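Sharing a chain and its predicted structure for anyone who wants a worked example. Both blocks are below, sequence first, tokens second.
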Amino acid sequence: MGLMAARKGWVDMSKGNTFENDFLKLIFTATAIANIADNAAASPLTSLYVSLHTADPGEAGDQTTSEATYTSYARVAVARSGSGWTVTGNSVSPAAEIAFPAATGGTNTITHFGVGTASAGAGKLLYSGTVSPNISVSSGVTPKLTTATAITED
């Protein structure tokens, strides 16, 4: 019985608010967390890649899971810096609108976005979230994520 209670305690843990903010800054703006983590790898990522999805890629998915397929679609690189992302109050948002290539053919209904590590292929999906309202993509439509798009740690 005591072991079960201890295990449950681990499941219900959460990060402290200050660390949540620090963690988002480490991932999105390459800001070190003093005495814990830094960005001193031999070749750290300088950009994160934002993707569009037609369904929730889920926690087990990668950047290709349910990824948009309209003609001319491509992921968008966003600088891993304060000029690419804004982190405040345990939440991160793009510092500027993210515009994807305009559709030149095909159709998709975009329901989710992702942030990952690769410009193409099955990159590591770091975060995903819903797009509301959904974006109906057809020829001539340029899908965009605004600065109101947010990822929150809690």
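Comments welcome. The chain has one domain: 45-152.
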